[in-house]
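User: Quick sanity check before I run a bigger batch. Here is a single chain. Can you write out its predicted 3D structure?
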Amino acid sequence: MIGTLITIHGLLRWVTAALALLVIARYAWGWLGKQSFTATDRQLGSAFAVAITVQFVLGVVNLVLLAINGAFRPAVHIEHAFYGLLATGLAHSLPALKRLPDASRFRTGLLLTLVSLLLVIFSVTRLRGSFFFGML
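Assistant: Done. Predicted structure follows.
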């Protein structure tokens, strides 16, 4: 069971990364193009926040199962969970920007999403040795 959950967690990483790249591209386009922040932009940011939250919760479940099975490595697993928590928090701070002007909302959302994605990449690389572990 734990192997299956870890595999699902690893595969969902790609969905989360794809959503992050989509949000980054859309927010950069909106900011540089001086566009209005629309409901679609908000929904895209929310979809990223939901995806990263699912990843975080699934990761916590994996950590509990690893601990039960005696495979928990505190140094790397707690670090991985900490960076996941930070990335999730950044993704969820996007709705707090709703009172900002559109340009600031796009710019700040872009930066928050970019930092969140970089934290995820760093965290996975520290845990697995590569973000593409098992793919290359």
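The mean pLDDT is 87.

User: Great, the batch can go ahead then.
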